[in-house]
Amino acid sequence: MNTSDNRFSEAERNGLYRAIHERRDVRSQFLSDPVPPEVLARLLQAAHHAPSVGFMQPWDFIVIDSLEVRQAVREIFEQENQKAAENYAGERADLYRHLKLEGILESPINLCITCNRSRGGPHVLGRNTILETDLFSVCLAVQNLWLAARAEGIGVGWVSILDQERLAETLELPDDVYPVAYLCLGYVTEFLPRPELEVKGWRSRLPIHELVHGNGWGQPLENGPLKTALDEQEV
Ligand SMILES: Cc1cc2c(cc1C)N(C[C@H](O)[C@H](O)[C@H](O)COP(=O)(O)O)c1[nH]c(=O)[nH]c(=O)c1N2
């Protein structure tokens, strides 16, 4: 059997890698143009087709277009962001305060992806030992949506500078439902070529060869074909 039989076509593979490499966290570039319902439906379907522990599908999607709700969430962000800024001093504090870290009011849609921690009953296959696997599953749904959105030309920004309890209260979540991701979605003026935090001088992408270890933590990858290929593909 030819090992390439199951491969996508070259154009399809290029499309997938393009979505991965050109996906951005967006907060400064949102347009107010509405996202058509059929496009949003495709994004939600992409999220719903993520893998999940024991096929638990612990996610729900709260689609928020109400200005009132968005304003309430924006206030939570403001308070938490003030606190976060106090972690830095001097130039770093100045830089932090100049970063735009949310697009809650500018984006036409806010979406909260939650995790229902009791979905599927008390014994979910694969979740007997590592309880957090339900949360991991929801993160994969977020990433599916994020990549599909990039292919649709829609920007997504994840806002985590939020007090979860206040967010849960604002969205009237039941006790066993945890707000994993608060996302802002919309068409954009542009997708930056690099992460905004890198463009603004906050932090850079680490070289991949420092992150790939051989056979155990801290053991460098030996010089060989994998190391060469990684170095050649560094982007
Ligand atoms: C769990 C989690 C939480 C957050 C983020 C991401 C993730 C995965 N990111 C986006 C983050 O800053 C961004 O992904 C990195 O800077 C890399 O940039 P690109 O996503 O490649 O553009 C993010 N960005 C932001 O402006 N405000 C925020 O609160 C958060 N929170």
Automatic annotation (TrEMBL):
Top-level taxon in the UniProt lineage: Bacteria
Subunit annotation: Homooctamer.
Domain Nitroreductase: 20-187
Family classification: Belongs to the BluB family.
Pfam families to which the protein is assigned, alphabetical: Nitroreductase (PF00881)
Lineage, broadest ranks: Bacteria, Pseudomonadati, Pseudomonadota, Gammaproteobacteria, Oceanospirillales
Identification of the protein by name: 5,6-dimethylbenzimidazole synthase
Any one of the GO BP annotations: cobalamin biosynthetic process
Reactions catalysed according to its record: FMNH2 + O2 = dialurate + 5,6-dimethylbenzimidazole + D-erythrose 4-phosphate + H(+)
Annotated NCBIfam families: BluB (TIGR02476)
InterPro entries, alphabetized: BluB (IPR012825), Nitroreductase (IPR029479), Nitroreductase-like (IPR000415), Nitroreductase/BluB (IPR050627)
Keywords, alphabetical: Flavoprotein, FMN, NAD, NADP, Nucleotide-binding, Oxidoreductase
Xref: CDD domains: BluB
The enzyme's E.C. designation: 1.13.11.79
